[in-house]
Design brief:
The complex is a heterodimer of chains A (128) and B (447).
Chain A (H helix, E strand, L loop, with lengths): L6 E2 L4 E6 L2 E6 L1 H7 L2 E5 L6 E2 L4 E7 L3 E5 L4 E6 L1 H5 L3 H4 L8 E5 L11 H7 L6
Antiparallel strand pairs in A: 1-2, 2-3, 3-9, 4-6, 5-8, 6-7, 8-9
Chain B lengths: L7 H11 L29 H13 L8 E2 L13 H6 L2 H4 L11 H18 L3 E2 L6 H16 L3 E5 L4 H11 L5 E5 L8 H7 L4 E7 L10 H10 L3 E6 L18 E5 L15 E5 L12 E5 L5 E5 L4 H4 L14 H38 L5 E2 L8 E5 L4 H10 L2 E2 L2 E2 L10 E5 L6 H14 L1
The chains are: A alpha+beta (128), B alpha/beta (447).
Chain lengths: 128, 447
């Protein structure tokens, strides 16, 4: 449910370091709570995102939520396939439903994020 | 006749139930010094027939375009309204329809709005139009804030050939949105693409033009679209006279990103200045930034077509902190009137009306320009309005024309001090050749 190798924000985004870059998406918990996702709005490649500031929007049949950047930096890639098929967020939140790849400006920000255990405590789930 | 439904006995009963001694006690929380101390200073009540006669006398102090030959436009246009329009649009089912939140009981109203939206898209050559806004000015203000949100930029360039009242409303709309609005001069009656290019920068969200513009002139839409797009800005085109779209290129064809406008000319009466009909249309990609209501067509569980409010104003209901607009309603009846009008005329009819406007206006333009002392202010091509420089103050001309039951054009000095001798004349299809010749004849004797 909550892979150990990821770091999590209190706003329910995950981040995965891949070499010098960070891949960002939203958690299974967020996807379940949103229910069927119908729309996702991502930033432009080349734009800057800031730590815990909105970088996009996700809309489900139930709600609309801002997406918060778990790291500051420059957007180097966005998941265009997700924009076309946003429902993937519900089925594969940590895989095909990644949202953006960021070139982090300050890796120290990672320290402010949660590990899988702390995130599970936040959302009230027991470690499996 | 009394209009307070509760009888004295019922009021007594309510006081007893609520344990209040007298109605006045209910106002105890209001400070004594701001309370009304005596009865209002009003004349004695009239009987119903007296009141109607009084109201008629007051109304008779107004005049309207049925009594005058109207050569005034400037954002409100005296067009012929076919009798199908009031007959259909003023049916009680439409006249009293409330906001169609309950799709299951409001399919007729929703379908009418959907058809209006579709007609707006055809007229402007855009992908999506909303259910309508308040008027052309506020729709243009909304477009600016929409463009700022889409581009994440903060400057708005607006041509001074955009309706001056639209520009005032635009400034009101943006004054607390941390947007700056800058005027682009139009000294030759149109927006100069080269000047626009010099004013353009990477922080400009939108270039706003009007075409035909406030002076009646057609803008270089395509060149101005290129100027905006080259720097990542959006082109917003305001249309004050949508009948023009029967003849001139639609903004969507020359690169407009948002089209706003005033739909009054589409079957709506002059209405003493309002209610009017705000139009806004945009590209598919921007639909989620389109303010106001949108009606969509879908199918129900049995596959039958149905209409429903869609994608609507989520920012207003659930993300209010992020809202870029607070419009929570629309001008449904005016929109319906526009839809009936356009459906009555059809494509060929709209083209024909537009052509009549242009022909009659050009006839008048030629005749007035040939008069001694009068000359055209601008060389650019025009639709149904044009600006002439006059040998005497336009205000004075209007006073004299009114004595002959002619409503003259707009003296421009009020909005453009440098154009104090200029007169903005409008000729729609409702003006006859005889009326135009009479106007020219009177001008000749005035000069």
């Amino acid at each position: 449910m909550y892979p150990k190798e990821l770091r999590y924000s209190k706003e329910h985004e995950w981040v995965k370091l891949e070499g010098g870059r960070a891949r960002v998406g939203i958690t299974k918990f967020a996807a379940d709570r949103l229910s069927d996702v119908v729309y996702v709005e991502l930033p432009k490649v080349g734009s800057e995102v800031a730590f815990m500031q909105p970088f996009g929007v996700v809309e489900s049949v139930k709600a609309v939520s801002d997406l918060y950047a778990p790291l500051s930096g420059k957007v180097v890639e966005i998941n265009q396939a997700l924009v076309e098929k946003p429902e993937v967020i519900n089925t594969d939140p940590y895989g095909a439903a990644w949202m953006i790849i960021v070139e982090p400006r300050d890796l120290k920000e990672l320290a402010q994020l949660l590990d899988a255990g702390a995130y599970m405590a936040l959302v009230g789930e027991r470690p499996s | 006749m009394k209009y307070i439904p509760a009888t004295p006995a019922e009021r007594e009963h309510m006081l007893r139930v609520t344990g209040v001694r007298a109605v006045d006690d209910l106002f105890a929380d209001i400070p004594r010094e701001v309370r009304l101390r005596g009865p209002l200073d009003l004349p004695p009540a009239m009987s119903d027939p007296e009141l109607l006669a009084h109201a008629r006398r007051l109304a008779a102090r107004n005049t309207d375009c049925d009594q005058l030959a109207c050569f005034l436009g400037a954002g409100a246009y005296d067009h012929f309204v076919p009798s199908t329009v009031p007959h259909l649009a003023l049916k009680p089912e439409f006249l009293t329809a409330y906001t169609p939140y309950q799709a299951e009981i409001m399919q007729g109203e929703l379908q009418a709005i959907f058809e209006y939206q579709s007609l707006m898209c055809e007229l402007t050559a855009m992908d999506v139009a909303n259910a309508s806004m308040y008027d052309g000015a506020s729709a243009t203000g909304e477009a600016a804030s929409m463009a700022a949100d889409l581009t994440k930029r903060t400057r708005i360039l607006v041509s001074t050939a955009v309706h001056p009242e639209y520009r005032q409303v635009l400034r009101t709309f943006t004054s607390h949105l941390r947007l700056t609005v800058e005027d682009l001069p139009a000294p030759a009656g149109i927006t100069d693409p080269a000047a626009a290019e010099r004013a353009m920068a990477d922080d400009v969200a939108a270039l706003i033009i009007q075409s035909p513009n406030f002076f009646g002139c057609l803008e270089h839409g395509e060149a101005l679209a290129r100027v905006a797009h080259d720097r990542g800005a959006l082109l917003v085109v305001a249309i004050a006279e949508p009948i023009s779209l029967g003849l001139v290129r639609a903004p969507g064809e020359y690169g407009a990103d948002i089209v706003t406008g005033e739909g009054q000319a589409l079957g709506n009466a002059l209405n003493f200045g309002g209610p009017y009909l705000g139009m806004i249309a945009t590209r598919d990609a921007f639909v989620r930034r389109l303010p106001g209501r949108l009606v969509g067509r879908t199918v129900d569980t049995e596959g039958r077509p149905g209409y429903v409010l869609t994608l609507q104003t989520r920012e207003q209901h659930i993300r209010r902190a992020r809202a870029t607009s607070n419009i929570c309603t629309n001008e449904s009846l005016n929109a319906l009137i526009a839809a009936v009008y356009l459906s009555t005329l059809g494509r060929a009819g709209v083209q024909h009306v537009a052509e009549l406007n242009a022909r009659k206006a050009h006839y008048a333009r030629g005749r007035i320009a040939a008069l001694r002392g009068y000359q055209l202010a601008f060389a650019a091509p025009t639709f149904n309005e044009f600006v002439v420089r006059c040998p005497l103050p336009p205000e004075e001309i209007n006073r004299r024309l009114l004595e002959h039951r002619i409503l003259g054009g707009l003296p421009l000095g009020r909005f453009y001090p440098e154009l104090a001798d200029c007169w903005l004349v409008c000729v729609t299809e409702t003006r006859t050749r005889d009326e135009i010749d009479r106007l020219v004849g009177y001008l000749e004797t005035l000069g």
